[in-house]
Structures are given as C-alpha cells and as structure tokens.
Write a structure and sequence with these properties.
The protein is mostly helical. The protein folds into two domains: 3-230, Orthogonal Bundle (Helix Hairpins), CATH 1.10.287.110; 234-306, no CATH class. Helix content is 77%, strand content 0%. It is built from 14 helices and no strands. The longest helix has 34 residues, at 233-266.
C-alpha cells in the first residue's frame, strides 16, 4: 500500500472507528479501551500479512537458507544445488518450474556476491540490477524516502493529537518516531539488525518496510492510551471549589436555622425589653457580627436578671443599717 493510501485509510476509517470504540456508551469504560486496542492489533496484523503476501519471496526464501549463511560458503552452494535440481525444467514439469529455476539462479548470483548481497540487503532487487546506478543514487534515494515518510507522519501525528487530552499521546508518539528514525538509519547505513534471530530469511529492506507499517498502529495506540488515562486537573479543581462553596453555603444556612431556633425558644421569657431592642435590626449584619451581638445582648440580659433577683423580696441595705443604729443606741442602751 502506498503512503497516500495508508494515510487515507488511517484518517478516514481507522481513526473514527477507534474513537467510536473508545467513547461509545454501549461499552463499559474498561472494555472499550481493550476493544479499541484489539481492533488496532487486528488491523496491524491484517495489513502486515496482506503486504507481505503481495511481495515476492526474498532470495533467502528462494534458496531456503538463513541470512547467516555467508557468500561463497559450501552451505550456500549446496542449497543452490538442491534447489536447482528440484526445479530444473528438464526434471520438473510443473508450470511454474521455469520461473522458479530462473529465480533460483538470480538469487544465487546475488547472495554469492558480497557486494551485490550488501546492496540487496539495504535497497532491494532494484539496486542489484544496476550496480553503477545503485552506488550513485541508492543512499540519496534512501534518505529522501526516509524524510518523506517521517515528515508526513510527523505532521499527521501532530494534527491527530491536538487537544489537552492528547498531549501525553503526542509526546509518546514523537518519541516512537525518533526511535524509529534512529533505528532505520542504523539498519540501512550500518547493517544493524535487531531482529536477526527472529526473521532469519527477511532482508533489511523488508524489515524497514515492517517498521514503517508498525508506526501508524503505535501512534493510534498512544492516542487511545492517552485519552483513556487523561485527567483534566483544571476542571477537577474547579469542581472541588464549587463543591466547597456549596458545602459552606449549607453550613451557613444550618447555623442561621440553629440561631433562629434558639431565639424562638428563649422568646419573650428569656429576654427583656432591652434585650429585644438589642436584637432588632441585625438581619443585615454578617453572621459572625450577628452572633457576637447576640452574645453581648444575652450577657446584659443575665446581668439585669441577677440585679432583679437581688432586690426581689429582700430588705434594702440602708434599712438594715438604720435598724442596727436604732437597736444599739436606743433599745439596748
């Protein structure tokens, strides 16, 4: 699949489907993330299988040898002899025998030549057909191809990760893109093969192709994971402040109700005329001032009540002193 077709597929089909699976209310939240990841994995595997099935067999597969078999070795010669005897048109009457025999000869000519083999590993069969052209243009063409692929996906990654919920996903995606660029550069220009023990008959240029095909699912997986784990801290703080304000309002309302209840219980029996006057007209004051004013009024009321209790039903002090004077000066004298 060409780069434009791959871009169109991810923008028009894969991205909307993943977004639907992640945000659909039909699925519970833990499962919709797993469904989206499973869809991405299925798309990636299907795409890899389709692309590899459309590509011709590598020269290593044609000769049935691993990449570790060196040029000019007896093992390579033996593999060529066995394959050519099996598919020789004089001995094998199958319709595809002639084409297979020619492919075997071409593969042996390339793999048995160290220079041609190196070109094939890095750039494919086109570079082997014209070695002079390959020496002059292959490195330049490889750099241009790398730049066009990664620039296209860098722009697309930025556009698809706009928004607060995708900031972390953008960071992860660009880190993956940088690692992919460094890995591909080492594979093409230094011969580095991180999958030599797993894909033993796959040349480097096809592994680079697999690397390109794996980045789009990786970027989509980063987006899904970023949206699934995103927490809007600003909105969370705003909700907390709103909840605190509501709680404070409820507390103030409860305190006012308590104060009004206490006032109703005390009523006219607990307060005199002066106390009632002190409590009038305080509805417009703040709650703290109103409570302080009520405490002061209650203290004054208590003082008045105590003074009234002292005088109620008792003998005045001056009368006691007059009585004592009379007693000692006139009666007892």
């Amino acid at each position: 699949m060409s780069g434009f077709n791959s871009l169109l597929l991810h923008v028009v089909i894969i991205t909307p489907v993943c977004q639907y699976l992640l945000t659909s209310p039909k699925f519970p939240k833990p499962r919709n993330f797993l469904f989206a990841i499973a869809f991405l994995a299925a798309v990636a595997l299907a795409g890899e299988y389709h692309e590899l099935s459309q590509r011709p067999d590598s020269f290593y597969t044609v000769l049935n040898v691993d990449r570790s078999v060196g040029a000019g070795t007896s093992q390579l010669k033996r593999a060529y002899r066995d394959a050519s005897l099996k598919w020789h048109p004089d001995k094998n009457k199958a319709p595809e025998a002639q084409a297979r025999f020619q492919a075997i000869n071409e593969a042996y000519e390339v793999l048995n030549d160290a220079e041609a083999r190196k070109l094939y590993e890095r750039y494919g069969t086109e570079a082997v057909k014209d070695k002079k052209y390959a020496r002059k243009h292959s490195e330049t063409d490889s750099i241009i191809a790398m730049a066009s692929f990664y620039v296209m996906w860098a722009v697309l990654t930025y556009l698809m990760t706009i928004g607060k919920s995708n900031q972390q996903a953008r960071t992860w995606s660009f880190i993956g893109l940088i690692v992919s660029i460094a890995l591909e550069f080492q594979m093409i220009f230094s011969g580095f093969d991180p999958l030599a023990d797993f894909l033993r008959r796959t040349p480097l240029h096809e592994k680079v192709f697999l690397l390109h095909a794996l980045y789009p699912p990786f970027m989509h997986a980063c987006r899904l994971l970023g949206q699934f784990t995103f927490v809007d801290q600003q909105k969370r703080m705003q909700d907390m402040m709103a909840a605190i304000l509501v709680t404070n309002k409820e507390i103030l309302t409860s305190l006012e109700q308590v104060i009004q209840s206490v006032e109703r219980k005390k009523g006219g029996a607990g307060m005199g005329e002066n106390g009632q006057d002190a409590l009038r007209g305080d509805e417009s004051l703040p709650l703290a001032a109103r409570m302080k004013r009520r405490q002061e009024a209650e203290i004054r009321i208590q003082q008045q009540q105590q003074a009234a209790a002292k005088t109620k039903g008792g003998i005045p002090t001056w009368a006691i002193w007059v009585g004592l004077y009379v007693l000692f000066n006139y009666v007892l004298k």
